[in-house]
Amino acid sequence: MPAPTALYRVYRLATRALAPIAYRKVAAKLAAGGVSEVRQRERLGYASVPRPDGRLIWFHGASVGESLSVLSVMGEMGRRCPDLSFLLTSGTATSARIVADRLPVRTRHQFAALDAPGPVRRFLDHWQPEAAIFVESELWPVTLMETQARGVKLALLNARLSEGSRTAWGKRPASAAMLMGCFDILISQNAEQEGYLRDMGAPADRIRTGANLKSVGAPLPVDPEALARMQTALQGRPVWAASSTHPGEEEVVLDAHRALLKRWPDLCLILIPRHPERGDDVETLIRAADLPLARRSRDEALTGDTSVYLADTLGETGLWYTLCPVVFLGGGLAKVGGHNPFEPARAGAAVMTGPHVFNFSETFAPLIETGGVVDVHDAKAIIETADLWLTDPGARSRVQSAAEGFVTSADKGAMEAVLAPLMAALGLERDDA
Q: Among 203, 207, 249, 333, whose CB has the most other CB atoms within 10 angstroms?
């Protein structure tokens, strides 16, 4: 076990003292999200369901994206090892709600215990995992150290350390190395992230370069009845979407939409903010642009007069991608690192995005090179690209086909690149060998 640093000891004492205050805050957030009091107490380590018999593998992802990214891995691991059961933990009400209907067989969801000695011990006493797999950048010191102390195999999967995380841990090299030393294997998203792990003190012989887990996800679910209703409401009108948008991007998209309306007077924009709770702010922007709108969260009807349909709900992105042949994917103009291009590509959409896609650099570079995604820098480029794809189905089809080919190829290799070293390092036998 890595030797605890002085900073870790101070942190451990602080979390013990502050856990009651932290719990009140997180419980209030969960309650606001409709989570019952019984399930809120999972954050204190009190399980709300029994532990299944046999071997249990624990996966942890902080929120929606991380949680969804491991579902395919869990499903494939369960197929290879039918005796395994799985536990998926996350921290938000939204993540719990979205994964609820997508969990693989033999899988349970719980809210993660607070990173404090009491909650973590109660959690581990109940669940007794054989292995624990943390996703992306989940480095909770007490949780990692307590889990490792019990002899549980640990993995960091789809490892991605943001610039902020690297800067923060760079000021605490001994504690960073302590946490990195807890893991039996660290599988990075790409070679660049592998270097960051080494810089943080991760043992070089435990690091592997895998693939971005978001490349192996299943297609987003689509409610066929909702899709049929939307298609009926549109009555054959041309439609495009701006998805996962951030502040500063909606203004650009709305400017582009107003320009496109001069060529396509009945064009409808489905505007899908990354964070639906920003719905009021985005509605204000739409009204300021003098564009007639309807709002999904208020169940307002999309009519022939609706120019912008504000899709400020959760769990329906697959519906919008299936409905819209043209998608602007946000996160690349706002410099937040971009978002997952595999989801709209799997739905058959032609995708454009901004240039700042560093969170998916290993994905967007080949996609853009092969013509599967178009890089747009401003409203003018969005207008030109959307107009071309709406006017010329052949041009749109070429982009869609290039993206489909890339996604199919990525799917074939990514799962094995991740799962083979992961299962070997955790000592998990596969029954289909």
A: 333
